[in-house]
Design goal:
319 residues, alpha+beta, four-stranded antiparallel β-sheet, 51% helix, IpaB/EvcA family protein
Length: 319
């Protein structure tokens, strides 16, 4: 299949039109470059920003329309106001930060995939062949389990995403997953059954699911004697607030505390705004230069909306 011969199918073209009707700066394009690996994974596309446009580049041509639809749906959800994650803190070690960001994003995507994959199925992007190629992707990513090896985190992440992907079709593939990864599959199932208890009908539901995914993953890490990721503190997740909450004082909705982590890029002390109701990092601000207690008194007394807008902090209004 040559790159020139690949065209977006009708369903993808409709998705692209929908994305472009909402995309604020210029246009979104899809390009295809690459070879066929014979398997499907969710890292087979990249995005590139060029002046006036965003280009989605599908980098593996095994299932180009599947992969393009996956990227377009992720983008569509953000354009429709679903929560985003940001990385504004640093642990002081570049490599560790990289690993943390990858894992935080993968777990965030597990939650987002509940909607993305459901939409892909609805529009006919997933058939038996895609499911088989997805299984090959898992086998390409993971080695079969051995006693306490160092792949447990990756297996849990991969299988959790697989449970979301297969959904009701899991029985067809369960036997082989069970044979190769029994421990990880059991742990993934436990988390999956918790995060799928409630449907996702709004950005607020999605935010709750993301936070739940983060905390259940940490519980499993600790049960295995591995370090927890603490994404509730490390990863900033855009807050979803009602009109009433936006009128409240900052102190009623958020607790701002000094983090042991530094601001990414500046290496200065950072303050983290934790949402009181769910304990999740919702914004970070630099340490004030002047009298901190006085500054924080003023911040805490401001209406939430004024504070967020003054500091250019993204938020979503709960409908």
């Amino acid at each position: 299949m040559s790159e020139e011969a690949i065209k977006l199918n009708k369903e993808n073209q409709l998705l692209l039109d929908q994305v472009n009707s909402l995309y604020p700066e210029g246009s979104v394009f899809v390009q295809f470059h690459g070879d066929k690996s014979g398997y499907v994974r969710h890292d087979q596309a990249t995005q590139q920003t060029i002046p006036g446009a965003l280009v989605i580049i599908v980098t593996d041509l095994t299932a180009p329309n599947y992969t393009a639809s996956h990227e377009l749906l992720h983008l569509l959800m953000l354009l429709k106001g679903f929560p985003q994650i940001f990385f504004q803190l640093s642990l002081g070690d570049k490599e560790l930060d990289e690993q943390m960001m990858i894992m935080a994003t993968d777990l965030y995507n597990v939650a987002m995939h509940r909607v993305v994959v459901a939409e892909q199925r609805k529009h006919g992007f997933i058939d038996d062949q895609i499911e088989e190629e997805y299984l090959k992707g898992i086998e390409h990513t993971l080695t079969p389990e051995k006693e306490d090896d160092d792949e447990r985190t990756l297996r849990l992440l991969t299988l959790l995403d697989a449970l979301v992907f297969y959904g009701d079709n899991l029985p067809k593939y369960e036997k082989i997953l069970q044979e190769n990864y029994p421990v990880a599959l059991a742990a993934a199932k436990k988390i999956y059954s918790e995060i799928t208890k409630k449907p996702i009908k709004s950005p607020f539901d999605m935010r709750r699911t993301i936070i739940k995914t983060y905390s259940l993953f940490d519980e499993q890490m600790q049960a295995w004697g591995l370090p927890a990721l603490h994404n509730n503190e490390y990863t900033t997740l855009s807050p979803v607030l009602s009109e009433r909450q936006l009128r409240l004082e900052v102190r009623q909705v958020f607790e701002i505390y000094h983090s042991d982590m530094k601001e990414r890029g500046t290496n200065k002390r950072a303050y983290v705004g934790i949402r009181r109701s769910d304990g999740q990092n919702s914004f970070t601000i630099p340490a004030p230069t002047d009298n901190a207690p006085e500054t924080f008194k003023k911040i805490y007394a401001q209406p939430v909306k004024d504070f967020l807008e003054r500091h250019s902090i993204p938020y979503i209004v709960r409908k």
